[in-house]
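User: Structure please.
Assistant: Input sequence and predicted structure:
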Amino acid sequence: MESALKIRNHEIIFFDQSIYDPEILRSKIEENMESALKNEEFEMKLQPKINLHTGKLSSAEALVRWPRPDGTMFFPDQFIPVFEKNGFCVDLDFYMVDQACRQLRKWMEEGIPVVPISVNQCRLMFYTDNYVERLCQILQRWSIPSNLIILEVTEGLALDDVHVVRNVLWK
């Protein structure tokens, strides 16, 4: 019905399963997101960032993947928009910071040289109570120096809400 109303008022619209498929996917994602976080189904993959002047690894970017226990996969372009709409992106972003710190701690304990890891932060993070405190708690729990975690915000957030970002990060 919603799709039909977006078109024109005087046309006949026939049901097509492809119209309903996105709703089925959204529902499946929302039904499983809480348990997926609890069961650590979300995986952090690291994308290297190479310094073009030296050709050496300078940092890494944390990317989230969601393989399902049944062997299927939810892709970021499927679940991230759903999480941004329902607010779950805040929980996922804190989880990803935790995963990055866990990985850094593992490298440190194994004597592997560490590089900073950048982690995306959704717009809603900056409207979350005690955002900075929660980040600091994660860093402290893993004993990770703050310079090893880079918080990435979208250009849109930085430009649209520069005062909010500044007020949160420079308290």
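The mean pLDDT is 87.
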